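Handout, page 2. Input:
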Amino acid sequence: MERDLEEGKEKNRETISMLKKPYLAALGKQWDVMKRFFEINENREQLCSKMTVEEDTAFHIAAYSEEKELLQHLVKLLPPSSSLFAALNKTNTHGNNIFHEVAATDRVETAEFLVKKLQEVRSPDEGKLEDLLMAKNKLGETPIYRAVAHDTAIWLLRKDKELAKKKEKNYLTCLQLLAKMPHVFRSYSEFSHMGKLKKFLYYCLPSQFEDDDVSDDAILIKRYRAMWRAIAKGWPAINKLWQKKGMHSSASELTESLVKADDTWKDFPCKLNNEDKTISLVKEDTSVDKDRGGLLSLCQRMFDLVHEQGQTSGTKEVGGDGTSKGQPNERNDHKSYQHPLLEAASNGIVEIFDKMIESYPQVIEYISDDEENILHVAIGHRQWDIFHRVEKMEVIMKRRLASRIDKDDNTLLHHVAEGKRYFGRESREQAAGPAFQLQEELNWLKVS
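Output:
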């Protein structure tokens, strides 16, 4: 047994060593050299061989390098004895097939080419396209799960809507994953702090970079995009802004598609504790005298917060983007929620919130495992935009949401007082010092 294992390792080393020339070419982005190597007849048999220590084939490398032309060339070079389906289904040490690698890029046209080619040459006794798209890697991720932050996800979802319901190793759907990625949405970006000129350019820029989404007779749209592509080549700042807008647009479109395709979030189990609870004026906490009442507890917490902030305010430096240098924008102790609406609310992603409420308004009353509702989450994580949206639902807010007490007997007032869960992008005022932090906390006290 051990001897067979050693022989297998030796054979792998020999194969990898034999393919060092095309791999060196790939490292230097010398794609023509790589093409010429595999054009030699005896080398074509090695197209599906392991080229790297992570067992990537030439197809894996072409896919994650975003080289569509190289991938097309390699497909043409496949010998008759090799199956395209088998080549695309080949996995590396991470369990990723070729579609996993393509999905992690923005190359929708590459995915389209592979699907079209596969449909042309696939024999009846081979697996189906769905088998490739639904294949899970070692993390339990399907290609669409890996593609969530890219345009490829939208394209894959159009091919098979059932992909939206697939879960990865941690039992997260694509919508749940997207709710954990606030940085891809406009509501999370520095858009509200943009200068007038930058904001004007943002609105002027097209949502898409390429013309794949428009018909051939849409001449004006194509010319408009061509003009901006020419400008973006000479202005890196505009190109960066355009990429950001494209990301925001893709995230919004993907949200809409996932909300429609994945209805599992509508049947989310809510394990309610139907036992009526009384409101405790004092949160159980050894740091505060229990006999002083809720308001005194709140004041004590705010005093501690100001004192704590004052200890570090002398060394805190405000960055140009309004955040404190040396500190991450996203706190490590950010509480996670299983339901995508609550997770999105905790991150301030209004795009997901709006689409889910529009699709299924009853979801507004869903609660977490800790029996926290949308109002607890918005206040606990200091998400003004989410709070204001809930505030407009006046009747349900006053009669249902505001009266809920969570699993730890916390009321909304307790969540206002709790500063540990405060998370997100610090404003210039908050970064400036504890006084502004206290003012912000008092505002939350007023609205609650």
